[in-house]
Specification:
Order of helices and strands: HHHHEEEEEEEHHHHH
Keywords: Coiled coil, DNA-binding, Restriction system
Shape: globular
Strand order of the largest sheet: 2-1-6-3
Number of helices: 9
Structural class: alpha+beta
CATH architecture of the largest domain: Alpha-Beta Complex
Number of strands: 7
Coiled coil: 198-233
Protein name: Type I restriction modification DNA specificity domain-containing protein
InterPro entries: Restrct_endonuc_typeI_TRD_sf
GO molecular function: DNA binding
CATH topology of the largest domain: Adenine-n6-DNA-methyltransferase TaqI, Chain A, domain 2
Distance between the termini: 33 Å
Radius of gyration: 22 Å
CATH superfamily of the largest domain: DNA methylase specificity domains
Length: 241
């Protein structure tokens, strides 16, 4: 849906066999890898920069530091607890056992995105129930101010955007994009109609997931009823769900 709004639905990054760049451009960018200077990437950046907006303009980074104590517990979101549907899970831990990377609070409706290996599309929205949870320093915590949180989440998970973020990573063993580079990525201004359509699509998907989880639990209970009572009782139970 967003790709259609960006006129990128069927667009592919061109892969020319060769291209030339000035050494001054390489020194200015601080990069020598050829893919970073692919002319197709320039085309993509120009398309995304049509409104001269950057992510920092629509969703600044939250800077709310978490300092653990010796008595309380906290809920911790780490990179490994993100789901592939753009949601996050958390584990409850004693604060005295807080990992060194547990450094920042998240608030409801924030969007968190992993700076490590961004090609894995690891971004998630924070629910109202997760307000005040703590996340790893491996995330940038974004506060959607002038954009729908659902649209921002969808944008950050687009394969083209993840590829773009991946180009800005450094190191090979633990490739990560800096917070500054992430916040400086271009983002267009989406129409109200597009934002509403994306929000409705994600709402429907979340409701479908919730319903599927309810049906799964009902099926498990029906198996128990069939074993303990009869198949007829189990079917009657399922009809009421």
């Amino acid at each position: 849906m967003l790709l259609r709004a960006l006129s990128l639905e069927n667009w592919q990054v061109p892969e020319p066999l060769s291209y030339i760049r000035n050494s001054s451009e390489a020194f200015l960018a601080g990069r020598l890898d050829a893919e970073f200077f692919n002319p197709g990437i320039d085309q993509l950046l120009k398309r995304l920069s049509c409104d001269s907006l950057k992510i920092r303009d629509v969703a600044p980074a939250r800077k709310e530091r978490f300092t653990p104590n010796e008595t309380d517990e906290f809920h911790y979101i780490e990179i490994g607890t993100l789901n592939n549907d753009g949601t996050a899970q958390a584990q409850c831990l004693p604060q005295r056992e807080a990992p060194s990377r547990a450094t920042q609070y998240v608030r409801s409706h924030d969007v968190i995105t992993s700076t490590v290996r961004p090609n894995r599309r690891l971004s998630a929205s924070i629910s109202e129930q997760q307000d005040g949870f703590v996340c790893s320093s491996g995330f940038v915590v974004l506060q959607p101010k002038h954009i729908s949180g659902d649209v921002l989440l969808t944008y950050l998970r687009l394969p083209l955007i993840c590829r773009l973020m991946d180009l800005y990573t450094s190191a090979s063993m633990y490739p990560a994009i800096s917070e500054s580079d992430l916040l400086n990525l271009p983002i267009p201004k989406f129409s109200i109609a597009t934002e509403k359509a994306v929000e409705q699509s994600l709402k429907s998907a979340r409701q479908a997931k919730q319903r599927a989880a309810q049906l799964l639990e009902a099926a498990k209970r029906a198996v128990e009823i069939a074993n303990e009572q009869s198949e007829a009782e189990a079917l009657a139970y399922l009809r009421c769900r």
